[in-house]
Amino acid sequence: EVYFKNLSKQKQKEVMEKNGNNHKLRVCVATCNRADYSKLAPIMFGIKAEPQFFELDVVVLGSHLIDDYGNTYRMIEQDDFDIHTRLHTIVRGEDEAAMVESVGLALVKLPDVLNRLKPDIMIVHGDRFDALTLATSAALMNIRILHIEGGEVSGTIDDSIRHAITKLAHYHVCCTRSAEQHLIAMCEDHDRILLAGCPSYDKLLSAKNKDYMSIIHMWLGEDVKTRDYIVALQHPVTTDIKHSIKMFELTLDALISFNKRTLVLFPNVDAGSKEMVRVMRKKGIEHHPNFRAVKHVPFDQFIQLVAHAGCMIGNSSCGVREVGAFGTPVINLGTRQTGRETGENVLHVRDADTQDKILHALQLQFGKQYPCSKIYGDGNAVPRILKFLKSIDLKEPLQKKFCFPPVKDNISQDIDHILETQSALAVDLGGTNLRVAIVSMKGEIVKKYTQLNPKTYEDRLELILKMCVEAASEAVNVNCRILGVGISTGGRVNPREGIVLHSTKLIQEWSCVDLRTPISDVLHLPVWVDNDGNCAALAERKFGHGKGVENFVTLITGTGIGGGIIHQHELIHGSSFCAAELGHIVVSLDGPECLCGSQGCIEAYASGIALQREAKKLHDEDLLLVEGMAMKKEEVVGAAHLIQAAKLGNTKADNILRTAGTALGLGVVNILHTMNPSLVILSGVLASHYVNAVKDVINRQALSSAKTVDVVVSNLADPALLGAASLVLDYTTRRIY
After folding, report:
1. H or E segment and range at residue 87
2. Residue 519 belongs to some domain of the structure
3. Domain match, 171 and 124 both
4. Within a domain: residue 724?
5. Residue 677's closest CA among 537, 562, 486?
6. What is the rounded end-to-end Cα distance, in angstroms, of the chain?
7. Is the pLDDT of residue 233 over 50?
8. Closest CA relative to residue 665, chosen from 644, 696, 635, 625
9. According to the annotation, is 504 in a ligand binding site?
10. 403 is in an annotated binding site
11. CA distance 665 to 587
């Protein structure tokens, strides 16, 4: 708690001001059982320690309030948290029907609680059926949801519940890189995913050196030594209750035969737990001299018990996750944790169908000591989560968006396709790649071809012609009628003549090039050529945020910085076709050198090349990589590494990104004071990283009459290709351009 109180006040103040009126984020943390509280408690302590930023409401439900499971709500009170609401939601019976009835009961009770609390965000943990009721209620009541530990893979119904909560949640905190990749594969927005590590590791990694012998003696007896006892924790598998009960019976038989002092924790409240308790009593575990059967152990004490045990056995996620932090040997039984990432301390017994198998596993594992594993965290999860919470903009639309991968469309046999779809051939000449696409009137990319952009003029023109001919031939097969060719290229372009006047340094041998004539001669189609920034603006005007907007500006944030200006619905080229060179607006007289030869341009601060330059400087000084980052020896340092480092808490990387965002924001302010657009659209790979910084600078620096401008991130996947297509489609279908 002391650590959280000492976090940087100035940085926090800036984030608060972004949400306006110093609004405190009202956070509801709902905990259902002893396991999820161990993950949520560190976050709750962090939130409680910063009352100037957060208001904390605690809701307790589920097995916390059941005597047979230890009345574990008391440990929340002992941690000095005020419990706002206690909800009795468990229908006893411990079978499948009781679980469903418990879900229904919680759904009936939760709306009244949420109506009274009116939280800005609800934090939900894990994969329990109780957590699903929380996420369902919050989602239907338009409350933002932060899901902890999404994206992980395990066995049983827990997987389905966890992924269902992921689909309902607006923000995600995951523990491992694999979990992060799973969330992205599930079409979740990467900008709303935080790879933080497991919150419980913040406590685990600082716990081992504390006094532990008194705890061991209290729970297992005065005669027990370290590394000479076993901790057993096994839960029912709800998709195969009969088998899981049989496996538990075999486990107890093996433990009796192994003849070591054993602490057995009662199972959770899932269907089948009542039968497992009957098995314990049938075998006399509660009265056996070698066993101590308990309903609940406080988490602080449980940490010490597993840290110094000779072995842990069962199927709890704690065994494959938290126990690895101490290198304690673990025997994981059955399929309940199948798919979890584990350290070398875990021995899996997938088919635990005989006592001998389990007994042999105990003989192999008991008393060993493995290297400590940090797969699930490095002890700094909570500071990352708090920073993530502060970055949430409550003004953003509540409706979540999914990032679906491109799907090949089937060609419908409707009248439009039978009569051919009016389309354009779009060409995008980038510094690295050369792309050609067939684009329909609706902005759908029907077919796309990509090749590396050749270094010489002759090879480049030859490849353009070859790809265009191939695409024009394919257009017949997909029922597309090509109306013309649109070309987007870097550099200064004379669109009236179809000539590239002067190229950027990224495209060599590309000055004074007539593109219109050779392509038109080969394809017998009209050809339009324009600068890539102008094409991005045209794409927004026809297909994106700029549709129907009279005055707006598009800024491309990529390898370089470019853009286009739409004024009174028309694209501005300027007297020498040099308008909208927005990347070369000077924002500092003594700033870094730009590729154009000047100093202090926006591009010298905020382009991908500029960020790569700064990333290399940090890397050369060994100041780039932080915990959680890894680079291959041959990997080239780039802007992506700088962004990743900033997300993981590298203050130097974060300062560089702040400076870049400020430079871009100052450039936008100059544009506002010159053109007075009603909309600014940020496009390109860096747009999402800069949008908040740009808004902040506008709020601080712009004239009050210009502050009403909307700043948005483009939702177009391929603005250069769509803009090139719009050159054709707008002109040939009614001469707008």
Report:
1. strand 83-87
2. yes
3. yes
4. no
5. 537
6. 62
7. yes
8. 696
9. yes
10. no
11. 10
Q: What CATH number has the domain bearing residue 609?
A: 3.30.420.40
Q: Which two tokens stand for residue 135?
A: 């996420």
Dist. CA 665–CA 679, nearest whole Å: 14
Q: What is the pLDDT of residue 20?
A: 53
State the sign of the Cα–Cα–Cα–Cα dihedral 199, 200, 202, 205: negative
- Is 532 marked within a binding site? yes
Adjacent-strand bridge partners of 712: 681
pLDDT of residue 239: 83
Query: Which residue type occupies 86?
Result: R
Residues 485 and 595 in one domain: no
Structure tokens at 709: 């401008």
Find out whether 509 and 457 touch, Cβ atoms under 8 Å: yes
User: Is 512 assigned to a binding site?
Assistant: no
Cα separation, 713 vs 642, in Å, equals 21
What whole-number distance in Å separates Cα of residue 155 and Cα of residue 338? 5
Those residues whose C-beta lies under 8 Å from the C-beta of residue 166, and which sit 6 or more positions away, are 147, 150, 151, 172, 183, 186, 188
Residue 695 and residue 583 share a domain: yes
**Among residues 351, 316, 158, which one has the least CA distance to residue 246?**
351
Q: What is the pLDDT of residue 596?
A: 86
Q: Which residue type, as a one-letter code, is found at position 486?
A: G
Q: Which residue has the tokens 């009345």?
A: 71
Which residues are known to be catalytic? 532
Q: Is 584 annotated as a binding residue?
A: yes
Domain that includes residue 440, residue range: 413-543
468 known member of a binding site: no
Query: Could you tell me if 270 and 353 lie in one domain?
Result: yes
Weakest-pLDDT range from 196-200, 411-415, 647-651: 411-415
Q: Are 32 and 127 in contact (CB under 8 A)?
A: no
What CATH number has the domain bearing residue 63?
Answer: 3.40.50.2000
Domain-embedded: residue 720: no
C-alpha–C-alpha distance, residues 474 and 717, integer Å: 22
Are 72 and 188 within one domain?
yes
For CA atoms 402, 406, 411, 415, give the dihedral sign. Answer: positive
